[in-house]
Amino acid sequence: MRLLSAVLLALVSGAVSQNVVQFNVAKGLPGVHVGAAPSLSRRGTYPEELINSISGGGYYVQVQVGTPPQNLTMLLDTGSSDAWVLGHDADLCTDRNLQDLYGMPCTDTYNPSKSSTNKMIKPDGFKIVYLDRGTASGDYISDHFTIGGATLESLQMAYVTKAVRGTGVLGLGFSISERASTKYPNIMDQMADQGHIGCKAYSLYLNDRRTDSGSILFGGIDTDKFIGELQVLPLYTPPGGNYSSFELNFTSVALAYANGTQLSIPTSILDHPAPAVLDSGTTLSYLPDKMTQTIYSALGAIYDPDLRMALIDCAYLTSPASSFHLNFSFSPTSTISVPVWELILDLLPASYPPPPHFTSRKACVFGIQSTAIFSDAGTVKQSNFTLLGDTFLRSAYVVYDLTHYQIGLAQANLNSSASTVVELPHDATSLPSATGVAAQQTTFTPTPTSRALGGGRGGSGEGAVAGRNGASSTARLRSVWEVVGIVAVTGFMVGLGGVLVIL
Ligand SMILES: *[C@@H]1O[C@H](CO)[C@@H](O)[C@H](O)[C@H]1NC(C)=O
Ligand SMILES: *[C@@H]1O[C@H](CO)[C@@H](O)[C@H](O)[C@H]1NC(C)=O
Ligand SMILES: *[C@@H]1O[C@H](CO)[C@@H](O)[C@H](O)[C@H]1NC(C)=O
Ligand SMILES: *[C@@H]1O[C@H](CO)[C@@H](O)[C@H](O)[C@H]1NC(C)=O
Ligand SMILES: *[C@@H]1O[C@H](CO)[C@@H](O)[C@H](O)[C@H]1NC(C)=O
Ligand SMILES: *[C@@H]1O[C@H](CO)[C@@H](O)[C@H](O)[C@H]1NC(C)=O
Ligand SMILES: *[C@@H]1O[C@H](CO)[C@@H](O)[C@H](O)[C@H]1NC(C)=O
């Protein structure tokens, strides 16, 4: 997989206040220099900084590892459970050819010999394969780890020496899904064990796609960041009963047009359950093929075999009359409404030739893709699941509760700069009921998003993908190569723990 060179903003701003730890997560905006967003922290802010780096989309946090602290940028991933840092001697970081192949240098790396508190736990103990076939492997080590101003002593993490992406990953899932043969207390366990938070839970607010940053709050809920009642939902109980990932019972998706017409697609049309994984480490969202077929034919979206993703008419972004939103339901009282501007990504250059049968002039990447591509790519054996990534999560306020095996879910109050933090108590038996603000303060006026991206770097790797389609003309192939980097912008990075069989 190749990734587009880009600029990544890492915004640091941390605070520990009683048993709540909060910091901002910054979004990597491909190819665009972005200014730093204002700090949301209440105490102990850090200077903002801009890091020139590579990003495949996603949300990044800045942490410190070791003594003295080394600054590292990590991808925030609710879909995996290990924290891994990129070693200074990692193959990708020391080999220009690999950097050209994967299209990314390393952002910042960790050098254990420069940390007096580093300890080796298990040489060669770590290897993870993500759904996009990206891999990372190396040793298990431990060292001091600071996030949002809270320092965890001797946190076990992976020290990666073979990688295909230029930042580490901060997995925030259940320890049962760690890649280690012997499970260990991971960052969420240690946050609670070392007394930083009372309840093993965090609230994720990715915020509007057109905004530079969102935030994560460990051990608390911010009632200014959502609208209405926080719905408390039990995690979907997997066969066997051990919770290994953040999955919800998913009941339907409804396509609702601006004129009131709606089309509801219940998951009951499937012949199997398709629980939804809430995964911040995945850029797009994936629904079972039978559901996407209905949505695609209603909206005129077309699958582009060269890009291996569905494309949709960009005009939906600018035409209020035909604009739509998708309502995702998880229970009779829990529905998240995702507006059109979160679902249609204007990432392809104007020169990109739309696929055959595509009638509109300008194609955009659709934020909803089919899980069938995972089976087609041979990454997983089964595709009876739903994966709700950033294109869904940005519209939601999500409380991930590892203590009570619950998810708190509400419609996000976008661009909120106010903050009212409720601490989650140590001795509760459930997430509390909580009420957010009455309504979204601002209203949306559709405007075309025009985000100029640098061209791809021409290339080897993905050429093979395009090449598999014998029918493509040379001109079209060349264009495909040009957008390969852009495709990577929407690339994904998932570690679904025990949910899926990863080949
Ligand atoms: C780490 O980042 C902080 C805050 O941005 C900065 O003050 C410090 O100098 C950095 N440390 C190193 C070793 O770069
Ligand atoms: C949130 O802020 C961004 C950036 O200023 C803006 O483009 C967007 O329209 C805002 N969202 C809402 C819902 O007002
Ligand atoms: C569930 O976890 C328990 C304790 O870790 C283990 O003994 C059991 O085998 C697990 N069950 C399944 C189905 O994985
Ligand atoms: C999921 O939701 C459906 C429809 O409401 C319901 O019939 C089913 O029992 C639920 N499954 C679980 C595991 O909660
Ligand atoms: C998904 O399908 C596979 C085979 O088609 C089956 O073995 C598995 O149990 C299914 N998973 C769920 C959650 O229904
Ligand atoms: C509403 O808009 C959709 C999409 O433009 C269209 O298919 C449908 O016929 C419209 N319904 C009404 C009642 O106008
Ligand atoms: C979709 O959600 C919005 C906001 O919650 C709501 O106003 C609307 O009625 C819902 N539409 C459908 C078809 O469920």
TrEMBL record:
Biased composition (Low complexity): 442-452
Keyword Transmembrane helix: yes
Domain Peptidase A1: 59-410
Active site per the UniProt annotation: 77, 279
Sequence intervals crossing the membrane: 480-502
Cross-referenced CDD domains: SAP_like
Residues covered by region (Disordered): 442-468
GO molecular function, one term: aspartic-type endopeptidase activity
GO biological process assignments: proteolysis
Stored InterPro entries: Aspartic_peptidase_A1, Aspartic_peptidase_AS, PEPTIDASE_A1, Peptidase_aspartic_dom_sf, SAP-like
Keyword list, A-Z: Aspartyl protease, Hydrolase, Membrane, Protease, Signal, Transmembrane, Transmembrane helix
PROSITE patterns, A to Z: ASP_PROTEASE, PEPTIDASE_A1
Pfam families: Asp
Signal peptide annotation: 1-17
Biased composition annotated in UniProt, kind: Gly residues: 453-464
Family that this chain belongs to: Belongs to the peptidase A1 family.
UniProt name for this protein: Peptidase A1 domain-containing protein
Source organism of the structure: Staphylotrichum longicolle
